[in-house]
């Protein structure tokens, strides 16, 4: 069961970090008029099409003792990155990046430009406009970003296997654990974990689609008002 | 913060070229708006909204200057371009752009966040009363009526004590009575604050209701300015004439010039039906456009005599229909005219489709347009 908690911990960290990092990136991608914007857009979407093993392979190289990231980490904190929980978080952030950024971009772009103009004419700078107009009106996008990056991290396998290895309590996430148990023919335990993961994933997705269908919109709105 | 406003004139003299699918559009205007309402009138696509966007600072002109009183908002030559936040020009969009997630009170307080709490509350209470929306404080935009939304949008803009107000067709979709009530409240507010208000509309009715000064625009240029009567009752451009309610637009050929009388005779259509119109710079054989208001045409059931009007045309009513409180008669005199008559006149003259009638046109009701 510890593998399940580890997965939750990982997914929680990744979703939190992605929200903080994804917000400014999504803001820039939604509102920038720079012509070369497509370059960054493609970069952000890359994890969607790359096999996790490719991503994991390069992450491992970068984080290894001779990789740039690994060396930097060693110099800063006196320890390596590969096969650690921190390394796993870093790789997962990259892997789940599009799942956080794309719902945010969609939500930001959906905010009526006239509302932003009105805010500017009323004297509000970019930050106040973001805080008081864009954010509250993009809340469903924020929730979607959080939940999707959480769920996507929960279910990842290839990247974890490449970067984290299989260290109990450190990098053995639930998906690795299931794979392990199947390999050692412990079908009952594998089934137990797999079923749990299935139930959790389904619940999480129900949450996302429910919010996007505005099933709970009135509640959300009164929650903002308070 | 210093929010005192002194009466000052808004002056904008700008050029802005814009390229889109339809080709290049150039806005090239110089306008002056003293305190009070100045109407910007013109057909859609005339560049009215672009002009407002430039004044508000949302669009950067290619060249020119914009200032209010002595304060420069934009000067291309001096590289001055104040941000929309710094201009203190209020702008009410056609869509109103109320924040849907905020209440009426929160919407109105949006531009006041720099003020201390006490002053903010005082301003809020004042403007809520001035626009009669105190009871709506805690409602959201989706919960209030169209007219109330328009009042809220006006209040939100004016509560910041701006030095100019831009209104982009803010009252479209309201009935005349509601419109008049809101305009009255706006005038009452401005009697005290004396700021220039640029009011964009393409509705002739609104121009008449708001009165005062009008600037007519067409295809990115100023097509006329002055009192509504002078500008819109004698338009010089065809598109403007159509927009300002000239139901009859007729192609004509100049037949004869009578310089001494200040008139000329033109032939309408290919038909031999001729009328007398005011003299303009033209030569016999030139093609011209004549614009006549449906309301300026008199209908007679017998050939009239002893009239000063020079143009009497014989024709037959093709169609008669009631529109609101007026009747519209379509009359075929070789060319087709639209005339407006009251239902009383229809009864008195026993007008009906197929009946023979005579149209009477004063020379100076016939306007030549480009």
At the third CATH level, what is the topology name of chain A? MetI-like fold
Question: What would you call the structural class of chain B?
Answer: alpha+beta
- Strand elements of chain B, count: 21
Report the CATH architecture of the largest domain in chain B.
3-Layer(aba) Sandwich
Name the overall outline of chain A.
globular
- Most residues in contact: chain pair: A-B, 20 and 26 residues
| Helicity of chain A, as a percent range | over 70%
By CATH, the superfamily of the largest domain in chain B comes out as P-loop containing nucleotide triphosphate hydrolases
Quaternary state of the chains: heterodimer
Major pleated sheet of chain A: none
Low-confidence stretches of chain B: 1-6
Give the percentage of residues in beta strands of chain B: 35-45%
Mean pLDDT of chain A: 85
Main pleated sheet of chain B: 6 strands, mixed
Order of helices and strands of chain A: HHHHHHHHHHHH
Shape of chain B: globular
So, CATH architecture of chain A? Orthogonal Bundle
Indicate the radius of gyration of chain B in whole angstroms.
Answer: 25 Å
Number of domains of chain B: 2
From the N-terminal CA to the C-terminal CA of chain B, the straight-line distance is 51 Å
Number of helices of chain B: 10
């Amino acid at each position: 069961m510890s593998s399940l908690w580890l997965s939750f911990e990982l997914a929680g960290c990744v979703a939190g970090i992605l929200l903080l990092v994804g917000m400014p990136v999504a803001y820039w991608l939604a509102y920038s008029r720079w012509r070369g914007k497509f370059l960054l857009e493609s970069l952000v979407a890359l994890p969607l099409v790359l096999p996790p093993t490719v991503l994991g392979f390069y992450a491992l190289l970068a984080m290894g003792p001779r990789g740039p990231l690994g060396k930097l980490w060693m110099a800063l904190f006196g320890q390596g990155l590969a096969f650690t929980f921190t390394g796993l978080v870093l790789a997962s952030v990259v892997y789940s990046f599009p799942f956080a950024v794309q719902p945010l971009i969609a939500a930001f772009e959906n905010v009526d430009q006239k509302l932003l103009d009105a805010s500017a004419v009323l004297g509000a700078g970019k930050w106040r406009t973001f805080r008081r107009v864009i954010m509250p009106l993009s809340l469903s996008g924020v929730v979607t970003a959080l939940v999707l990056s959480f769920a996507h991290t929960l279910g990842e396998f290839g990247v974890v296997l490449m970067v984290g290895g299989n260290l109990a309590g450190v990098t053995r996430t639930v998906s690795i654990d299931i794979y392990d148990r199947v390999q050692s023919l412990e079908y009952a335990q594998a089934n137990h974990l797999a079923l749990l993961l299935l139930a959790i994933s389904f619940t999480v997705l129900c949450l996302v689609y429910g919010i996007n269908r505005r099933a709970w919109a009135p509640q959300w709105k009164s929650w903002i008002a308070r | 913060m210093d929010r005192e406003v002194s009466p000052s004139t808004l002056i904008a003299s700008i050029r802005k070229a814009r390229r889109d699918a339809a080709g290049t559009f150039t806005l090239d205007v110089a306008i002056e708006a003293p305190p009070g309402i100045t109407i910007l009138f013109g057909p859609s696509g005339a560049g009215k909204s672009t002009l407002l966007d430039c004044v508000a600072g949302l669009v950067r002109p290619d060249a020119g200057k914009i200032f209010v009183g002595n304060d420069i908002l934009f000067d291309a030559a001096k590289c001055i371009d104040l941000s929309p936040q710094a201009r203190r020009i209020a702008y009410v969009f056609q869509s109103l752009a109320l924040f849907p997630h905020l209440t009426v009170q929160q919407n109105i307080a949006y531009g006041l966040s720099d003020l201390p709490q006490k002053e903010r509350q005082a301003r809020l209470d004042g403007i809520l009363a001035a626009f009669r929306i105190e009871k709506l404080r805690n409602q959201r935009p989706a919960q209030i009526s169209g007219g109330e939304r328009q009042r809220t949008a006006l209040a939100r803009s004016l509560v910041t004590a701006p030095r100019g107000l831009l209104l982009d067709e803010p009252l479209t979709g309201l009935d005349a009575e509601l419109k008049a009530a809101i305009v009255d409240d706006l005038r009452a507010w401005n009697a005290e604050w004396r700021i220039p208000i640029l009011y964009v509309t393409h509705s002739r009715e609104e121009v008449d209701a708001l009165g005062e000064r009008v600037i007519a625009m067409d295809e990115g240029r100023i097509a006329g300015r002055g009192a509504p009567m002078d500008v819109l009752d004698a338009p010089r451009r065809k598109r403007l004439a159509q927009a300002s309610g000239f139901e009859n637009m007729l192609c004509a050929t100049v037949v004869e010039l009578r310089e001494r009388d200040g008139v000329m005779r033109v032939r309408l259509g290919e038909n031999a039906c001729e009328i007398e119109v005011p003299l303009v710079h033209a030569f016999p054989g030139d093609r011209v456009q004549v614009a006549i208001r449906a309301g300026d045409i008199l209908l007679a059931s017998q050939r009239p005599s002893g009239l000063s009007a020079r143009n009497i045309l014989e024709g037959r009513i093709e169609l008669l229909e009631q529109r609101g409180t007026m009747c519209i008669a379509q009359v075929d005199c070789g060319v087709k005219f639209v005339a407006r008559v009251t239902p009383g006149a229809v009864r008195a003259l026993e007008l009906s489709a197929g009946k023979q009638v005579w149209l009477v046109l004063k020379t100076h009701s016939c306007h030549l347009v480009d």
